[in-house]
Amino acid sequence: MKLTHQNTLVFLYILTTLTALVSKFYYGLSFFVMLILGLSAVKFMLVAFQFMEMKKAHSFWKFLIIFYLVVFVGAVSIILH
Fold first, then answer.
1. Domain span at residue 67?
2. Distance of alpha carbon 33 from alpha carbon 79, whole angstroms
3. 45-52, long-range: CB within 8 Å, 24+ apart, which pairs?
């Protein structure tokens, strides 16, 4: 594995631990829901662009991944809000 893959993997571990800690302190506040969704969106983007090599893909696929993420996070936040 390249150094960038290792750094990304360590950052994903940190984000996963941070998400678990944030969810432990969840008391029904919408701030925590948005924080968990935001952390999950960052993890999704890291995995998609680093490990699935989307950074080398055509711009249409990059747009589609980002659009899906925005629609999904927006829909979930509207439903849970």
1. 3-80
2. 11
3. 45/69, 46/8, 46/11, 46/12, 46/15, 47/12, 50/4, 50/5, 50/8, 51/5, 51/8
DSSP one-letter code for 52: S
Q: Could you tell me the sign of the dihedral formed by the alpha carbons of 54, 57, 58, 59, in that order?
A: positive
Kindly tell me if the per-residue pLDDT of 16 is higher than 70. yes
Cα–Cα distance measured from residue 7 to residue 49, given in angstroms and rounded to the nearest whole number: 14
Q: What is the pLDDT of residues 22-53, one digit of tens each?
A: 888 777 677 888 888 899 999 999 999 998 88
Domain count across the chain: 1
- Give the global pTM: 0.82
Taking 70 as the threshold, does the pLDDT of residue 1 lie above it? no
Report the candidate in 68, 2, 79, 70 with the shortest Cα–Cα distance to residue 33.
79
